[in-house]
Every structure is written in C-alpha cells, then in structure tokens.
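Lab notebook, design round three. We kept the backbone fixed and only want residue identities now. Task for the bench partner: fill in a sequence for the structure below.
Input structure tokens:
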C-alpha cells in the first residue's frame, strides 16, 4: 500500500507558464530549474510543506499520443 508520494512528474506544454503557476499562484518554491542534459529542461518545485515534489517537463511524443 502506498502511504506517501515523494515526487510526481507532470508533462506540460509550456514550462515557463507552468513554473509561473506553481510558483506565483500555488506558492511553491523552485528547487531546481536547469538542464540535466543538453536540450532538456527540468523544473522541480516543492509545495510550502516540502515532503513531496513536482517536476515539470516537456511532454514527449509518446505522452502526447495518449
């Protein structure tokens, strides 16, 4: 049985817009905004209660086809 979630990845079409929403509207703190490998941007935000985190990444071709 799952008792807690540590991290969730959310594919978003516009990372800047998602970042603004999570940071400015929901009050999340930006933990990471960088390029883990060339051409890939990853943003990790944590809620005011940082026991879990969300990562916003660009959707892949596979996730868009669902």
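Proposed sequence:
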């Amino acid at each position: 049985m799952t008792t807690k979630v540590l991290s969730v990845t959310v594919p978003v079409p516009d990372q800047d817009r998602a970042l603004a929403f999570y940071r400015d509207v929901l009050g999340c703190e930006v933990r990471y905004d960088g390029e883990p490998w060339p051409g890939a941007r990853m943003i990790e935000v944590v809620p005011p209660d940082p026991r879990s985190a969300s990562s916003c990444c660009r959707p892949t071709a596979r996730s868009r086809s669902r």
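Keep this in mind before ordering anything: The beta strands are 7-11, 29-37, 40-46, 53-57.
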